[in-house]
Amino acid sequence: MRNKQRMLPRYIYRVALALTGVLFVLPIIFVFVASFKNENQIFADAGFLSMFDLTEGVGFQNYQKVIEHTPFLNYLTNSIVITLVSVVLGTLVNSMAAYSLLRFPWVGKQGILVLLLALLIVPFEAVVLPLVFIVTQLPWIEYQNGSWSLVYSWFNSLHVQIIPELANPFFIFLFYQYFKNIPKDYEEAALIDGASIWKIFFTIVMPMAKPVIAAVAILTFLRSWNAYLLPVLVANAQDVRPLMPGMQQFFSHSVDWGAVMAYASMTTLPVLIVFFALHKYLVDGLKTGVKR
Amino acid sequence: MLRKVCLVVLLLFCTQARSETIQLWRTLSDDDEMRTFAQQVKRYNRVHPEAKVSIEAIPHGTYADSVIGGALARDLPCILAVDQPNVANYAWAGLIQPLYVDEEYSHNLLSQDDFEHVNSNGIGIYQNKVYSLGPFDIALALFTRRSLLQELNVRIPTLEHPWSVEEFNVLLDQIQQQGLYKYIFDLNLLGVGEWPAYGFLPMLYSAGGDFVDRVEYQIAEGYLNSEGAVTWGLWLQKMLREGFIQYTSLEHGQFEKGLLAIHYTGSWMVDRYQKAIGDDLLILPPVDFGNGAYIGGGSWHYTITRNCTKPKQASKFIAYLMTNEEIAFFNRGSGFIPTSAEAANQLELYRESGALRKLYLTSERNVVLRPATPAYPAISAIFSQAVRRIAQGASVTESLDRAVDEIELNILDNRGYQ
Amino acid sequence: MPIKLPKDAEHQFNYNSIQQDKLTAGLMLVPALFLLFVFLCIPLVVSVGVSLTDERLISPNSARFVGLENYKKLLGLQIIEVNRFNRESGSEADEFVYKDKRYSKLRNLVRNNAELLGYSELSRFTVWDKSWVIVARDVLFIRSFLNTCKFVLMVVPIQVLLALALALALRRNFIGSGIIKLLFFTPVVTSMVVVCVVWSLMLHQQEGLINQVIASLWPLYDAIDWLNDPAWSLFAIAAMSAWQGVGVQMLILLAGLQAIPNSLYEAASLDGASRWSQFLHITLPGLRHTLIFVVLSTTIFAFALFVQVDVLTQGGPQDSTSTVLFYAIEKGFRQQQIAYGSTVCILYFVVILTLSLIQKKLLGYEK
């Protein structure tokens, strides 16, 4: 009997906690619900429960509007390209560097590690203005109208949104710490058998590092997909603009809340899917990062 | 050596890659205008297949940013549409090149014949050089209802005898007494972008103020905070205090719905209002604050950028747009005000007996252009802020003094824009 | 720093004939170092260099060396004495004293002294009977800096306390606790732009959910126009930011809590210690390390406030939400004064650096 009495408040407590959690994400749920209403309904149903009233919803009309009347698909493509390339190249560049640093007796290795640690402190925001200045002076080769041509500025391009943020001291350290826990015996055996470093890296090391790869990949994904500051500065042409600045622009010029919410839903859904599918790695990655 | 060879090869590719078309950027505007312009381009391209023009239309809100972006990306088109007051800034920044310098200069892109017939609204000049030409203008006017003035027994003002500000204040009071209109007067107080400078400079000018000294373009003291400017600011606050104008009003289409008595806005509304209330619509010259009724002048012009590889060919297209026939054609299709007298004579609306002749004449005679200085974009932004502060109830003299200080500092920070 | 550098040697290959592999390994290392050099080190150096000139993003003139002019402009402050006296007509008036000269208007004083060119009023203060006015060369920058500090002071307590409460509530695992944790973490992965868009609707004066909820709980409530009221706009942004970011701090604190040995609590329970005293004497000391880390990293993060301002308020109303970073971008990019903007960025970096060093020091001494 006594036990039961104590159990009851505990359940109430947990249910209350769960309700708080739902309440907490209400704004995000609201985005999705409101995207199926027109503007008048959104304002009319602004009450606490009535905001979930979808009886007079307009179906996918808002989505259709956004896709047909704004360059949404264009922005989406840009974001997908930027994010995919950033994730793949970013994972590669940082893991390779970490591996090379860990396993090879480089001259000045201590110095490099200390420098990397120091660079960890430098916030991206502090260097973004000079970065804009620098990328307007860099050359690039572009394929245009059937031939290659030299371009004299990185401004308004997709690569300017990818390359500057690829190498990341924090990711290098994540890999570095993880690789430390992989015993080097296998790799040395393979070396003696005559395997190349490439082969060892890709067939032995990387398969063992899946959790950290996943963590870095998700973090890169989130950063690239949600990127705002850099693209706002260096990508203001429509053909290279990604989703978030596009959304800001749509938001500041449109008064159609339904369509704005549809836009927001479409940009948020992929993130939520990736997050709920891979959250374990993300959380682990963050914890390792914090322990650092 | 190898690097040099590579560069040369790449440069060869580069020249090959340049398509034969001449690129043009302009703002994306309404369908009539876009269609008319496309027709002009099509006709031109038929006659000039060797240097075809291709249009890229960029939304209005992002146009200025796109131009800056294009400059940073070294990717500006040959022909660039530019809002006339920004011509000086672009010229100073080295983005665009002069179309005509003077008779002696041997590299003039255009000859004087190409623009002799164009009035001052259609020519963008900086440091005595012609940088831009524009085929159309818009005009500011007061829109109201004939029936309203008849009921109140108020005289209909003319260009020669516009309403004085005292007359106008009395009229607003009468309308308020009458109580038939929810809103009495609207001058788009919270208009963004160029509106405050475009819409309110003529009033300020009429009251005896200005933005800056128009000879050296270094000083704002005594201009933007002059007695006249302060009078105008106080008048604006009086309008708000008496409830003649609203600080914010969310309702759209107030004038058509009969909620608003008098609307101070641009000629782009003529069409909509005519459709809504037909013959009852009255288009009147703006209020005289002491020195006459003025409107803003200068709209979108065309210029040639500095990185254009075929400026001669590109300027041919501008010359073509600026012939009387094409000016008339464009404005017939778009409904704007032509920038040449002959073109006006070819248009039903703007000829001697035309319904909107008055608008053409105002735009030809009673115009105050925004100061042609590279500091203009900054001046415009600072002035908008000052208007906003005044509208929010801040002290008029303090707001204008602050604007003067900010403008002069900006000029100093940029080495006087020399 | 937990990374023990000398010990790392044991992770290196001992195998001797790796000379040719070393080239490959070099190739693996070079891209990251090169990119870090070009896009992190060079910009740092460039920003210092540029800040000593009057470079513009697009300009017909080449840059000129101006020394520390930009720094002087940003930080220039002066204090001017104000005398209050009675006019003959009986009304009170102010008089400004500078270099033994008296002026009836502050603006005249500034305009008549070349060294005060460009200064304007930042604020006034009175100590006993004497008044002073502080004038600044760049009032908006000083305001932006103060706004940023205010934001930090608002967001850090809200976010950390909320995170602590959540972490304590979710400390014990139970069925479904994982999902609840995920819920609290969801806003973190949602784009800040999306968050701003939803909140701008929720914060709407008339139709917004927040005002409606408050009004239903408290009928006398006079609806606040959150984002358009200079007194509330920064707080609204702080509340929103805390909501968005609290998940991260919660996770970190949870990890910290789980590291406190359970035996301590058991022992305390046996001694009859109350819940509260357990919290005070076991939880808080045990979390000390984690809390310092959380507070300082949240501070550093909050200093970078930009997106919310750019999307929601553009620094307004009446400059009440202009922040250091927003100001830097506004000046350095949108008004093209890149040299001046870079100077702001350097000062921002100095603040971050200081905070980071404090963090290192506090955490280092603990051990």
From TrEMBL, chain A:
Subunit structure, as described in the record: The complex is composed of two ATP-binding proteins (UgpC), two transmembrane proteins (UgpA and UgpE) and a solute-binding protein (UgpB).
Known role: Part of the ABC transporter complex UgpBAEC involved in sn-glycerol-3-phosphate (G3P) import. Probably responsible for the translocation of the substrate across the membrane.
Domain of life: Bacteria
Organism of origin: Catenovulum agarivorans DS-2
Transmembrane region(s): 12-36, 80-102, 114-138, 158-179, 200-222, 257-278
Species classification: Bacteria, Pseudomonadati, Pseudomonadota, Gammaproteobacteria, Alteromonadales
Keywords noted in UniProt: Cell inner membrane, Cell membrane, Membrane, Transmembrane, Transmembrane helix, Transport
GO process annotations (BP): transmembrane transport
Protein's name according to its UniProt entry: sn-glycerol-3-phosphate transport system permease protein UgpE
InterPro entries the record matches: MetI-like, MetI-like_sf
Entry similarity comment: Belongs to the binding-protein-dependent transport system permease family.
Gene Ontology cellular-component terms listed: plasma membrane
Keyword Manganese tagged: no
Automatic annotation (TrEMBL), chain B:
One example GO MF annotation: maltose binding
Sorted UniProt keywords: Signal, Transport
One family name in Pfam for this protein: SBP_bac_8
Signal peptide: 1-19
BP GO terms, sorted: maltodextrin transmembrane transport; maltose transport
Annotated InterPro entries: SBP (IPR006059)
Cellular component, GO, one term: ATP-binding cassette (ABC) transporter complex, substrate-binding subunit-containing
Coiled coil: none
Family statement drawn from the similarity comment of this UniProt entry: Belongs to the bacterial solute-binding protein 1 family.
PANTHER family: MALTOSE-BINDING PERIPLASMIC PROTEIN, MALTOSE_MALTODEXTRIN-BINDING PERIPLASMIC PROTEIN
Name of the protein in question: Extracellular solute-binding protein
Source organism per UniProt: Catenovulum agarivorans DS-2
Lineage of the species this protein comes from: Bacteria, Pseudomonadati, Pseudomonadota, Gammaproteobacteria, Alteromonadales
UniProtKB/TrEMBL annotation, chain C:
Keyword Cell membrane: yes
Membrane topology of this protein: Multi-pass membrane protein
Main subcellular location of this protein, as a coarse class: membrane
Keywords: Cell membrane, Membrane, Transmembrane, Transmembrane helix, Transport
One GO process term, biological-process aspect: transmembrane transport
GO (cellular component) term, any one: plasma membrane
InterPro entries in the record: ABC_transporter_permease, MetI-like, MetI-like_sf
Domain ABC transmembrane type-1 stretches: 145-359
Membrane-crossing segments per the record: 27-52, 151-170, 182-202, 231-255, 290-309, 338-358
Subcellular localization(s) per the UniProt record: Cell membrane
One Pfam family from the record: BPD_transp_1
Family under the similarity heading: Belongs to the binding-protein-dependent transport system permease family.
Identification of the protein by name: Binding-protein-dependent transport system inner membrane protein
Organism listed in the record: Catenovulum agarivorans DS-2
